[in-house]
Amino acid sequence: MSDEDNHFESKADAGASKTFPQQAGTIRKNGYIVIKARPCKVVEVSTSKTGKHGHAKCHFVAIDIFNGKKLEDIVPSSHNCDVPHVTRTDFQLIDISEDGFGSLLADNGNTKDDLRPPSDEQLLTQIKDGFLEEGKDLVVTVMSAMGEEQICALKDIGPK
Asked: Per the database entry, which stretches of residues form a coiled coil (predicted)?
């Protein structure tokens, strides 16, 4: 059997890791980092000088991108940290169920129905008011990282 008989189609994320290593000293504000196994956005970075015991240290203050909790970590600047692969995808909102789950339409025509409502109450209210009460067509941005997904932004594309 030759290799010519087998045709394999590969996808970019098939078998790919949820994170990648990056040197702590190169991570900046507004970047991403994994702290306590949670994907976070860095809001503050401070670096201490090298001391008697070696390495300069980076102090990260970050906010969990899914639940908004503040997390901190201190890492030697020459060591590697895990950085999550964060992606943003736009979907058109088709419907909202009673339990708050949205039915979303992707660009390729597939639907996505397994997305939990956003944890941000203000965003959730804007989505419900705009879609259910005002009848607007809405495009939502879904952020995904480390196997989790959540609606993080909203765009109004006009009336239905």
From this structure: none
